[in-house]
Design a protein that fits this description.
Layout lengths: L2 E5 L4 H10 L4 E6 L8 E4 L8 H8 L3 E4 L5 H18 L2 E7 L22 H16 L4 E6 L1 E3 L4 H11 L4 E4 L2 E3 L1 E3 H13 L5 E3 L6 E2 H11 L7 E4 L6 E3 L16 H9 L1
Parallel strand pairs: 1-2, 1-4, 2-3, 4-5, 5-6, 6-11, 7-10, 8-13, 9-14
Antiparallel strand pairs: 9-12
Length: 268
């Protein structure tokens, strides 16, 4: 059975991936605070980057899924150690990137053919990671650019529910346009990409954009709150797009979905 290592398996995306990939693969996952009981879990502290070498030599994964967040310098060091391990074994690295690689141009939603340009430190860091993968792993470095990810037990949704229960205002951006995904749909998409050995860059989000205020308002109504209080804010520009739209040909139609699907899934 092929062995896969998920770095950051205790997070929202990592947990969903662990469940989905375990249907076929021998899955291991790292955690820092919350141990994962559904798979073989390994404690890993990003502050001690060098310890990844022992983990890799012990597990010997042929594929690694990167869902970690942390100190940028430590992540770059970790990325280089992963590449050093993967090259001799012809292994593959699946890297979770972000819509923020385009936050230097927020005038349009972005497709994978667009050249990344970032303004934020986070966006610039992810671009640097993408370039390292492209240079050192070539086709064995697969990139997932992710929009806002939601789930039935996601921190974003839980924060909204807490605010609703406490009759507090919910922050919304009236000129922000974005697309979204759920943790479970994303896990299914990544499973398909791994199973079919697809390569390249993938934009894994809903097929259309939606206004942030409208999206959150629909979520609160679905949760049974008709008279929600909002703290309305604006970002720079008339319309601020932070969306990574999928190319229809990338994945089967089963993986093409709307923002309504995201809302219905996490509030059902």
């Amino acid at each position: 059975m092929e062995r896969i290592l998920i770095l950051g398996a205790s997070g929202l995306v990592g947990k969903a991936l662990s469940k989905e990939l375990s249907k076929k693969y021998d899955v291991y996952g790292t955690y820092n605070k919350n141990k994962i009981v559904s798979i073989s879990s390994i404690y890993y502290d990003l502050d001690k980057v060098y310890k990844i070498t022992d983990i890799l030599n012990r597990i010997k994964p042929s594929r690694i899924v990167y869902c970690l967040t942390g100190n940028f310098n430590a992540e770059i060091e970790l990325l280089n150690k992963l590449i050093k391990y993967l090259i001799p074994v012809n292994g593959k690295l699946y890297f979770c990137s972000t819509a923020n690689v385009f936050d230097g141009d927020t005038t349009i939603p972005h497709l994978r053919v667009h050249e990344p340009i970032a303004k934020s430190d986070y966006g610039k860091f992810k671009i640097e990671c993408e370039k390292i993968l492209g240079k050192d792993l070539n086709d064995n470095g697969i990139i997932f650019r992710l929009p806002m990810i939601w789930g039935k037990d996601s921190p974003r949704l839980n924060n909204i529910i807490t605010a609703l229960k406490n009759n507090e205002k919910i922050d919304v951006y009236t000129n922000l346009y974005l697309n979204n995904n759920t943790d479970e749909m994303l896990a299914r998409q990544i499973y398909y990409i791994i199973e079919n050995d697809l390569k390249g860059i993938f934009h894994l989000g809903s097929s259309e954009v939606i206004n942030h205020y409208e999206f959150i308002k629909k979520v609160t109504i679905k949760l049974g709150y008709e008279d929600t209080k909002f703290n309305e804010e604006e970002l720079s520009g008339e319309k601020y797009y932070l969306a990574v739209l999928p190319t229809i040909e990338e994945l089967p139609t089963d993986f093409i979905f709307s923002n309504e699907y995201v809302i219905n899934h996490m509030t059902s």
